[in-house]
Amino acid sequence: MSEAAVSGRRMGGRTARRKLRAAPLREEEKAVRPGMIGGRYRPLDESGVRRIHTAVLDVLERIGLSEAIPSCIEAVTAAGGRLSPEGRLLFPRALVEDTVASATRDIVLHGQNPRHDLELSGNKVYFGTAGAAVHMVDPRTREYRESTLQDLYDIARLVDTLEHIHFFQRPIVCRDLEDPRDLDFNTCYAAVAGTSKHVGSSWVQPEHVDESIAMLHRIAGDEARWRARPFVSMSSCFVVPPLRFAEDACRCLEAGVRGGMPVLLLAAGQAGATSPAALAGAVVQEVAEVLAGLVYVNALSPGHPAIFGTWPFVSDLRTGAMSGGSGEQAVLMAACAQMGRFYDLPTGIAAGMADSKLPDAQAGYEKGYTTALAGHSGANLVYESAGMLGSLLGACPESFVIDNDMLGAVNRSVRGVDIDDESLSVESMREVCMEGPNHFLGHPQTLGLMQREYVYPEVGDRASPKEWGEQGSTDIVERAAERVRETLARHYPTHIPPDVDARLRAEFRVRLKPPAGHR
User: Fold this and answer.
1) Pick the residue with more confidence: 280 or 437?
2) What pTM, to 2 d.p., does this model score?
């Protein structure tokens, strides 16, 4: 075959691959999609899981939790708990085991758009945001500034366009809102206005929860529609480790349960500070605290949708500072996910909390292994997996875009290798080697699997050095910054119609300026 013919064949194959790459795919044909099946990574052996479970039951029955509010004591003791002479609420083994056995599983976290619904069953894995950063990070100037309500809305708009970030929990605190009521309400408002994906938020007073739920009724259409498809969940830090209830958070938790809002039962001790330095001990404490919360919620409302949110954090024991990007953090969260799988409960953990202050090489390796282990552990929800820097003190728009690429690749590794007669490729090898051109570039199997088997980065660079130079020698932060600029200039979600938004602004204290098209 002549050199021209070979070149033509190669060019034709390349053209075909480019056309196929540009063609839209149905969701079920994509190489990765929300809810890939994890669970292959198990840092605990079966004996270790059982010993942790036994220790958890001992802690709940013999130590219990202090500072329970009266309504919590009333609900839990009516269900079979008891109050010790020292005032600690104790959870007998039978009560804990019966609650775990009867707790609701296979829950759905709804999006305002049903295509973003998250089915939390088995080992299905979803990646999302979270955090309480008080700063925004500018990687070009290397400066941190205080985060604002507009920043929150902009991050939500950005995440709304990022395929591999499946849900949006507020990642920043709006530092320009000093009034707690304004902060709680507008945090929820900006998130649900900025994305039609499922939203998570938090509140500091129960009346703030009630006001936000009233707003959500308006968006849903009425209370019945909201309760049928609640598209916001509550992140509830109902405990103050070690083993103490948080009074105001418990009152908010009760308001959320009454309002039909799914709850993330979040226990976030810091190993060596507010939980044991031993990693196994940190797992025991956080599991005990979350199971206490599960009993509490089910005593208030049997079967209420609740997420097993064990989030033990790691300290650098030399300084006491949080170390969210450490190897210990990665294995600790994965162990907690494994305990959630042991109980077969909807489970959420945190990963991707880089200690690096900028989206640099350190951030890349910290985010890479922590999110990979989290995904492979089989946790249903991986929070804080995108955008966070400085041990959760900073959020960076460019990092959300970069991390979207990373999460696509991590999700592909979670999917693993499909084995069937077609994928084993014996017939394809016969055709190429015995009938064809001795390469697979233009083979029908290659073209057919180009998008169904492979994930491609959007801002990551795979060009040759020569092509990279011809294209301007940009780095990934520069390319991500351009994506941020383009998205924020054009993407203003309209899933809340302008007339509904106008009514919300007339009825509630909305502090976010309306987008230009809604004014």
Assistant:
1) 280
2) 0.93
